[in-house]
Amino acid sequence: MATDVHGAVTPKTADGASAAVRVAGLTRSFDGRAVIDGLELTVQPGEFVALLGRSGCGKSTLLRVLAGLDREIEGEVSVPRRSAVAFQAPRLMPWKKVWRNVLLGLPGRPERAVAEQALGEVGLSHRTDAWPKTLSGGEAQRASLARALVREPDLLLLDEPFGALDALTRIKAQRLVAELWRRRGCAVLLVTHDVEEALLLADRAVVMDEGVIAYETAIDLPRPRDIASPRFAELRARLLDRLGVDGPTDSPADSPSSSGLADGPAGDGLADAA
Amino acid sequence: MPRWLRRTTGPVGLVVLWQVLSATGVLHPDVLASPGTIAGTAAGLVSDGTLPSAMLVSVQRVLVGLVLGGIAGIALALASGLSRLGEDLVDATVQMLRSIPWVGVIPLFIIWLGIGEAPKIALIALGVAFHLYLNVYAGIRGVDAQLVEAGSSLGLGRWGLIRHVVLPGALPGAMTGLRYSLATAWLALVFGESVNADDGIGFLMNQAREFFRTDVIVVCLIVYALLGLLADFLVRTLERLLLQWRPTFTGQ
């Protein structure tokens, strides 16, 4: 896997061959205040990692660093040369038709068929020629996903991509991401504040707090995941606790089952059967 | 009674009243000619070719001024919108000069450029350049930073960002600027031609003033108004072509 190193410190070029993302001693300060403070994170190729944290914990800053949009950093960061971002707002250029948005920034002169194929993959073939402002929220987000996927990324960075969608559209979009990830096999880092979303999609959940990864757990649930299973509820309660949400949750299965199930091996990228 | 009919009664009534006052002698032709006389004069000026050739001269002045002022205004706006250095050098200077009323420089232009075509075109170009500069510059600076960031995350370089994100994003502002600057261009034409002119619509008006030909003056005013409307229509058409991606666009 091609590895692109950027940032203030730029060591190793092909060393991180085994990992998709390798972050070591990453620090990012704003006006002297460290938002990210000596953070360590490794993501394996093909692994789906959910990055959770309270708002303002620095998770979006971390994603911007990984996307190469923020380079005023200390520490080591290496990501695949081919990585792509989908933001919370779809950020389509309103003056370009959907298919031109999908191809924007690709090297060479890619043909329209390339965009059509990617749009087909997200179920948006019928809006190829539409102006972005005429898309619904869910359609725009899917177009944004197609724009990321057409780059055939080894790492897909998702910054709360479902945050602005209504509940039903969000469920569909989550299923789509799960399906695309299964088909593409790229590593995914999903920034989210939604614990259930993390548990539905990811192999591993990491919780960011005080500028570091404060907690992580493997999500060793069989796919497709059942939101009503006791193990799901137990993981959810634990993650919510780690996120600082106190007291009993509204889950029906939150009262017993505190012991008996230990954390999965942290940081151990689990491949799944589904 | 339909609304449009009700809305036309005002203007039509005014013209009828005007005609009646003229016909009864209350409104002397030296004060204001009657609508009938004006219509006859207009027909005469058109058929003997005076008005078309005067219009041609005036429209040419506006076009040349518009092109020169447009090039200057857009070039300066790009320089200060796209680079920090350009902003520091250009923007403060333009903002300072902007506080001078542009009509006030007519005497200077006459001293510098004489009384031929040059001062008129310079005046038009000046008014156009300021309006375009301000709107294009604001348009560039108003481009959504999130889109710029998205563009760079997609692998666009500096030139790619300018071409695919910044300039298209500044286009609505530029079109607003164009509309303002066309209005300004006609205004500058009227000022420029009323000071001194040996041809064009302004010349017709000056000549008419000498002979108390209020009918000719009114015809010229109507021509100015129609040309202004035509220019506005052209800009709207241009907007419709260039800004079709905007769902809020309602300019028919």
TrEMBL record, chain A:
The keyword ATP-binding applies. GO terms for molecular function: ATP binding. Residues 246-274 have a biased composition (Low complexity). PROSITE patterns: ABC_TRANSPORTER_1, ABC_TRANSPORTER_2. Signal peptide: none annotated. Pfam families: ABC_tran. This is ABC transporter ATP-binding protein. It comes from Streptomyces ochraceiscleroticus.
